[in-house]
Design brief:
single chain, 182 residues
Length: 182
């Protein structure tokens, strides 16, 4: 079930990343055309930046899930299959710890429990916590920054799911090699 959910999530992330990458391209082309015509649209730059940030986080989650990251494997290549399997478990564990840590930090940063206790009254929440995350606006778009920032809790969640899935597979492989060598 975890594997199926992780795969489905990765497909959604890749489609969203592809759409956003296309949007970045179109936004940059719009920026070039509008500037060459002497009618620059200033908010296009900011929107392209936010789309690129979202694209990066979405694609990074999938790349880590698929284990397609750049790695230096000199030492790992010297190990036997069983030791490599355990090293993969350690690597997956580090990614899992990072994902869970980021999720905890996002929870503390966004503080949804406290916001709920104030009945989602942002002004009361800000007055009590001095946390203005829900009311800050972007420079040129004038949109609330919380919308582009929501990629962080989403990324931490998806990364945690993918890391759990990878960890389960790595443990299964490590245990298999342990039994095979016994």
């Amino acid at each position: 079930m975890l594997r199926t959910f992780s795969e489905a999530l990765a497909r959604v992330e890749m489609v969203a990343a592809a759409v956003l990458a296309g949007a970045v391209t179109l936004l940059i082309l719009l920026n070039i055309v509008s500037r060459s015509l002497g009618m620059a649209i200033y908010w296009v730059d900011e929107l392209a930046i936010y789309a690129m940030v979202w694209t990066t986080f979405l694609a990074t989650s999938v790349v880590l899930k698929r284990r397609q990251v750049i790695a230096v494997t000199i030492l790992v290549d010297l190990l036997g299959e069983r030791s490599r399997a355990w090293m993969q478990c350690i690597s997956d564990l580090m990614i899992l710890i990072f994902g869970v840590s980021l999720m905890v930090l996002c929870w503390r940063w966004l503080d949804p429990a406290t916001l709920y206790t104030f009945g989602f009254d942002i002004r009361a929440f800000q007055g009590d916590t001095f946390n203005f995350v829900y009311s800050e606006k972007t420079n040129t778009l004038g949109a609330l920054k919380i919308w582009p920032w929501l990629i962080l809790p989403f990324f931490s969640f998806t990364l945690t799911i993918h890391a759990l899935n990878n960890m389960a597979g790595s443990l299964k492989q490590a245990v298999y090699f342990k039994r095979a060598s016994a």
